[in-house]
Amino acid sequence: MRRRSDKFPSPLWGGVRGGGREVQSQASPLARHRATPLPALPHKGGGYIRRREFIALCGGVAIGWPLTARAQKPPALIALLGSGASDAPASLRIMTELKSALPAAGLVERRDYVLKAWWANSDSSRFPALAETLLAEHPAAVVVSTILAAKAVQARSRSVPIVMTGLNDPIGAGLVASLAHPGGNITGVANMAEDVLLKTFEIARAVMPRLHNVAAMSNPTNPSHRSMLDSLQRYAATAGLSITTVEVAAPADLDAAIAGIARARPEALFVLTDSSLAALSDMIVSRALSLGVATIGSFSPDFARAGALVTYTRDYSEAFRSVAGLLKKILAGASPADLPVEEPTKFVLYINLKTAKMLGLAVPASVQLLADEVIE
Question: How far apart (Å, rounded) are the C-alpha atoms in residues 90 and 78?
Answer without folding.
Answer: 19
